[in-house]
Amino acid sequence: KILGVTIKDGICYLNLSEDFLTLSYPVSEEMVIYSLVNSLTELPNVNKVQISIDGESDMLFGDHILMSTIFERNLEIVETE
User: How many Cβ atoms sit within 10 Å of the Cβ of residue 16?
Assistant: First the structure.
């Protein structure tokens, strides 16, 4: 569930509910994060994304992705035909 979205100075601050951390995803942790980041950076005024959970970003997503990271677009995980 999306709790809030704010864009400032090219950074999209995405606040999600705690459900984001507890749901099971059939893809890698990186794929989950970068599906959000790559989609949001398609917007003309967004270059980076900061994801928080219930307003907090001092936590891990999965085993090793630090949520306080300001993520940039990553096309290396996108498969092209």
Answer: 19
Give the 3-state secondary structure percentages of the chain, helix then strand then coil, rounded to 5: 25, 35, 45
DSSP 3-state of 57: coil
pTM recorded for the entire structure: 0.86
Calculate the alpha carbon distances from 40 to 5, 22, 63 in Å: 11, 22, 24
Angle at 75 between CA 36 and CA 8, to 5 degrees: 50
Location of structure tokens 């917007």: 43
Q: Which two tokens stand for residue 32?
A: 């989950």
Residue range 47-62, pLDDT digits in tens: 999 999 999 999 998 8
